[in-house]
Amino acid sequence: MALSYGYVRQTVALSLRDAFAVSALAAVLAMVAYLLLARGLDLNVLPLAVRVVVKASFAAAAFFAVMLALQPRRLIDRAAYVWRLAASWARE
Questions:
Q1: Rounded Cα gap, residues 7 and 89, in angstroms
Q2: Each residue's pLDDT tens digit, 25-62
Q3: Where are the alpha helices (DSSP H) in 1-92?
Q4: For the whole model, what pTM was predicted?
Q5: Which residue, among 72, 66, 74, 76, has the nearest Cα to 30 in the 3D structure?
């Protein structure tokens, strides 16, 4: 990985900090929010399938909320790109 990064860095202007720092911070904050949810609410009263859906949805929503707060333009651009790809696949 380090060797390939060295080669890519010479060819393309790529900063690992710019590429991964905000995503890593959003992941850590989403994990903290998830742990607060898990500690604060007793989700064991719900059926297993519902617990999985609730916890996964909360973790994903927390991650994307932090990403939207930190880099709104980049997240919107990426979501629009994925939407265009999905729309083009649906037409095929």
A1: 33
A2: 999 999 999 999 999 999 889 999 999 999 999 999 99
A3: 2-11, 16-40, 48-70, 72-91
A4: 0.76
A5: 66
